[in-house]
Amino acid sequence: MRILLISDHADPLAEIGSREAGGQNIYVHNLSYFLSRLGVSVDVYTRWDNKNKSEVVKVNEHYRVIRVKAGPKRYIPRDNFLELVDEFADNIMQRIRNKKMNYSIIFSNYWFSAKIALKIEKKLKLPIVHLYHSIGKIRYETLKKLGLLKNNHLVFQERMKTELEIAMNCARIISTSPVEKKIIENIFNIDPDKICVIPIGVDIDLFHPIKNKSLIKIDDRIDAATFNKCILYVGRFERRKGIGTLLFAFNEILRKHPSSILIIIGGGKGKDQKEMEAEELQHYCRIVDELNIKEKVKFLGPKKQKSLIRYYNIADVVVVPSYYEPFGIVPLEAMACGTPVVASNTGGLKYTVKNGVTGLLALPRNYKDLADKILKVLDKNKNCYSDNCLKRIENKFTWKIISKDIIKLFDTIAKK
Ligand code: UDP
Q1: Looking at ligand 1, which atom is closest to the CA of residue 305?
Q2: Pair (187, 235) in one structural domain
Q3: Whose CB among 201, 231, 320, 350 lies 3.0–4.6 Å from 343's, allowing a Cys bridge?
Q4: Same domain, 42 and 118
Q5: Has residue 206 been placed in a domain?
Q6: Residues with CB under 6 A from ligand 1
């Protein structure tokens, strides 16, 4: 079986922390890698966004990343992708013809890829499997609620139209949680049998408990002797991620645990990303100043994924305070290290974090409830949750399990 995977903006080999790179990049890379280990061939087509990157990277015998020319070979914000879709689709087709490639399935990720998939499917006549990653209608409503809608109504209209079109025309939709499945069913009014719930996974070779925590080395800016409780946030700086709410919650926690620390890892690298996030960072700094908690909140910037294991291991609790989260890989990484998670009771987080078992769910955008849940987890102690966290990951969220489920799904529809 050979998969034509389209991941328009999310290059699976991009460094996380570089421009808009996040969960989708990690998903596409891990899935392709684990599928390739089971003998399935995967070609990931992604936009060529840097002239210094090679056109083709052969990760191993079965997994290649192919950069496709669409617009200039430099970073372009995702919001400007619509005008590049035709060139992207034409160039994929040209390459497939030139190289006489044969594929069994098109697997599109995110809505621009859906548009590209619908275009090339007309010529290739292959079944499409689609994964939304985020759904336009939900994102639109979330941004509207937060007062963050820019003048992009037309793009949203186009996105919603495309998301309906792919729902109607694809062979299967992968939804990453039962909550998302219900949303997809309701928004697009399609047969529930067309939607398969297969979650995102976590690499347990990269994320696991470290026995001797006292030997863990972390960032020099943090002195382990100065705190007794460590609360950790990992992720991008975006309003919907709820870092502001977490800062207010942390201020409440300090009343009971004055020697606690809040570590914030994430935010972007590079000029463009920093500019994009400057406003957001200023917003957090204002809150930190107002609350007078500067000494206790450590913004460490983005970290390489392989270094995160140390932070997840030293943390007493990982907090995911999103106002909305389609899935959320960070809770899985924390749980794989045996660390409980307090997450907003929304989207995929409702599914990954088992309330009362691997952590607690809190009301989204409610700092008092968030503080209350974090305190409960801190008071109960991390060890009470660790085994449950590890079991939940082993039973449901390893890439080994997930890649096998994806192969089963592909097998039922692949062009033979
Ligand atoms: N991440 C990372 N370094 C950082 C911050 C985040 O490697 O400094 C990774 C993190 O390990 C996770 C991903 O980025 O795998 C974020 O995925 P998630 O689904 O939680 O959020 P998204 O970015 O998709 O909104």
Answers
A1: 7
A2: no
A3: 320
A4: yes
A5: no
A6: 16-17, 22-23, 26, 234-236, 265-266, 302-303, 305, 308, 327-330, 333
Angle made by CA atoms 246, 248, 250, in degrees to the nearest 5: 65
In a shared domain, residues 135 and 92: yes
- CA dist 35 and 21 (Å) reads 22
**For a pocket test of ligand 1, which of 7, 308, 353 has the largest count of ligand atoms closer than 8 A to its C-beta?**
308
How many residues does the structure list for the chain?
A: 416
Assess if residue 260 is contained within a domain.
yes
For residue 385, give its domain range.
213-397
Q: Do 393 and 407 share a domain, yes or no? A: no
Ligand 1 centroid, distance to 110 Cα (angstroms): 17
Rounded CA-CA distance 166/180 in Å is 16
Span 129-152, pLDDT tens digits: 999 999 999 999 988 888 888 777
Which contiguous run of DSSP H or E holds residue 305?
none
Task: Indicate if 149 and 220 belong to the same structural domain.
Answer: no
The reply to whether the predicted model has a pTM over 0.90 is yes
Tens digits of residue pLDDT in 338-374: 999 999 999 999 999 999 999 999 999 999 999 999 9
Q: What is the 3-state secondary structure (H, E, C) of 225-288?
A: HHCCEEEEEEECCCHHHCHHHHHHHHHHHHHHCCCEEEEEEECCECHHHHHHHHHHHHHHHHHH
pLDDT digits (tens, 9 = 90+) for 80-136: 899 999 999 999 999 999 999 999 999 999 999 999 999 999 999 999 999 999 999
Do 218 and 160 lie in one domain? The reply is: no
Asked whether residue 78 is domain-assigned, the answer is yes
Say how many Å lie between the CA of residue 190 and the centre of ligand 1: 31
**Total domain count for the chain?**
2
pLDDT confidence tier of residue 269, bands split at 50, 70 and 90: low
Going by CA atoms, what residue is nearest to atom 24 of ligand 1? 23
Q: What CATH number does residue 247 fall under?
A: 3.40.50.2000
